[in-house]
């Protein structure tokens, strides 16, 4: 009898581990979405909705033997998962790859590709009509969105506000050498200034904003520091939330106070022989990137293969030196690659600006790209 591997979540990590084990196990990939979302292109799609035609990839082409179940896992236990449609799916191995949620437009917020495309299109039209855009958050999402808007519509005003005193604050750059981080911040800062982007740092709106995010309606808001901003639309560019509430009662002790899942170096949950976790939802100290989720998926696929066949040995995940790329639209940004150092906007555009890796993922799903 072949072992069953339940993969909970069909994002970057989940699709990679599911495809890697398809030849050796009965793989069941469970995700409420009707298509994989290539999130890396989400912010480009907001200024150019033609990208929304390419960023949703039906799961049907992913697995040859295994199956994809369109459902929501309400609880993961040591020997299987409870589905929102009712019923318990027993599994010999489980991989939790539920990632994080994030406000629209960084994450699309709908399980249906068609509805998500319509929302992207409508938001893009509203954005097109807006004269001034307010972005709350100067992390990677806020800066990347500012870059996309200022590239697509150089005449539009863009203001980015963040309570921290510098861009890219918080834990995001914690593992970077401070001098390196500062150089990257300086380069991004400079490029944003050249585009006329207004940065209000060390402050925040003193009241909640009077209109919902993503709505075309002119409003004025006052910052705690006294400046006022009049904008026609705004977006929340912070608020990442790890999707770890899926841990059932028998596993909940590995959920940390910050909602990340604690894993051992071989990416199994502490005390569990057959339950693994990968990607953004885990506390491995690595950056929240698709690159990391895919690396971890490779380690887990090898480990499950070892547990199934006895060939090889259990491997461990060690965070590699971080790679970071923040594009500012198709022609700017900054990238850090350990062997190459800090790369400027032109190099960033070359690395990421082209097809935003759509072709790579289209190939995984048997699409032409
Ligand atoms: C705007 C933006 C741009 C980015 N650009 C890059 C980039 O250029 N390069 C890079 O490396 N990284 C980039 N990232 C980061 C990257 O998207 C994440 O690190 C990556 O998605 C993490 O993969 P994951 O598999 O852990 O989770 P995700 O890709 O978030 O996938 C999680 C999946 O789990 C599903 N799920 C959640 N809960 C349940 C449940 N209870 N039951 C079943 N399924 C569930 C979700 O529907 C989702 O499909 C970007 C992120 C954003 C927001």
**Average pLDDT metric:** 94
Which value, in Å, is the CA radius of gyration?
A: 21 Å
Number of domains: 2
Instruction: Output the CATH class name of the largest domain.
Output: Alpha Beta
The main β sheet shows up as: 5 strands, parallel
List of distinct ligands in this structure? flavin-adenine dinucleotide
For the termini, the CA-CA separation is: 37 Å
Total helices: the number is 8
Number of DSSP-assigned strands: 21
Structural class: alpha/beta
| Low-confidence runs | none
Domain FAD/NAD(P)-binding: 4-297
Protein name: FAD-dependent pyridine nucleotide-disulfide oxidoreductase
GO molecular function, one term: flavin adenine dinucleotide binding
Keywords: FAD, Flavoprotein, Oxidoreductase
Q: How would you describe this structure to a colleague?
A:
This is FAD-dependent pyridine nucleotide-disulfide oxidoreductase. InterPro entries: FAD/NAD-bd_sf, FAD/NAD-binding_dom. Residues 4-297 form the FAD/NAD(P)-binding domain. The chain has 369 residues and is an alpha/beta fold. The chain has two domains: 4-32 and 71-102 and 240-309, FAD/NAD(P)-binding domain (3-Layer(bba) Sandwich), CATH 3.50.50; 113-239 and 322-364, FAD/NAD(P)-binding domain, CATH 3.50.50. It has eight helices and 21 strands. The chain has helices at 12-21, 42-47, 113-129, 140-152, 178-194, 290-309, 345-353, 358-364; strands spanning 4-8, 26-31, 35-37, 56-58, 67-70, 73-77, 80-83, 88-90, 93-96, 100-101, 132-136, 157-162, 198-201, 219-222, 228-231, 233-236, 241-242, 275-277, 324-327, 333-337, 341-343. The strands form seven sheets. Strands 5-2-1-9-18 form a five-stranded parallel β-sheet, with helices on one face. A four-stranded parallel β-sheet has the order 13-12-11-16, with helices on one face. Strands 6-7-8 form a three-stranded antiparallel β-sheet, with no helix packed on it. Helix 1 runs parallel beside helix 6 (290-309). The two termini are 37 Å apart. The model has no long low-confidence stretch (mean pLDDT 94). Bound molecules: flavin-adenine dinucleotide. Flavin-adenine dinucleotide (FAD) binds at residues 8-14, 30-33, 39-40, 42-43, 72-73, 97-100, 102, 106-107, 141, 243, 246, 279-281, 288-291, 293, 325.
């Amino acid at each position: 009898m072949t072992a069953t591997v339940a993969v909970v979540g069909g994002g970057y990590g989940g699709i990679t581990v599911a495809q890697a084990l398809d030849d050796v196990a009965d793989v069941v990939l469970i995700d409420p979405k009707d298509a994989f979302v290539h999130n890396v292109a989400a912010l480009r799609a907001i200024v150019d909705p033609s990208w929304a035609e390419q960023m949703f990839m039906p799961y049907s082409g992913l697995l040859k033997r295994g199956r994809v179940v369109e459902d929501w896992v309400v609880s993961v236990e040591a020997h299987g998962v409870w589905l929102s449609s009712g019923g318990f799916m027993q599994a010999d191995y489980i991989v939790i790859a539920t990632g994080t949620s994030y406000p629209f437009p960084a994450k699309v917020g709908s399980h249906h590709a068609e509805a998500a495309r319509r929302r992207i299109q409508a938001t893009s039209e509203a954005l097109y009509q807006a004269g001034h855009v307010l972005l709350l958050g100067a992390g990677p999402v806020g800066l990347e969105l500012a870059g996309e808007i200022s590239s697509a519509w150089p005449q539009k005003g863009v203001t980015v506000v963040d309570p921290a005193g510098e861009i890219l604050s918080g834990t995001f750059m914690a593992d970077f050498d401070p001098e390196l981080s500062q150089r990257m911040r300086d380069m991004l800062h400079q490029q944003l200034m050249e585009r006329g982007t207004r940065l209000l740092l060390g402050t925040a709106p003193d009241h909640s904003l009077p209109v919902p995010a993503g709505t075309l309606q002119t409003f004025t808001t006052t910052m705690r520091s006294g400046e006022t901003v009049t904008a026609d639309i705004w977006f929340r560019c912070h608020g990442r939330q790890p999707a770890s509430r899926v841990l059932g009662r028998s596993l909940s002790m590995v959920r940390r106070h910050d909602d990340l899942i604690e894993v051992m170096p071989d990416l199994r949950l502490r005390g569990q022989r057959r339950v693994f976790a990968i990607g953004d939802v885990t506390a491995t100290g690595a950056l929240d990137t698709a690159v990391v989720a895919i690396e971890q998926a490779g380690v887990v696929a090898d480990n499950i293969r070892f547990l199934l066949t006895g060939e090889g040995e259990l491997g461990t995940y060690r965070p590699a030196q971080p790679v970071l790329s923040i594009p500012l639209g198709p022609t700017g940004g900054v990238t850090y690659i350990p062997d190459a150092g800090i790369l400027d906007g032109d190099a960033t555009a070359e690395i990421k600006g082209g097809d935003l890796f759509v072709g790579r993922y289209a190939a995984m799903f048997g699409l032409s790209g």
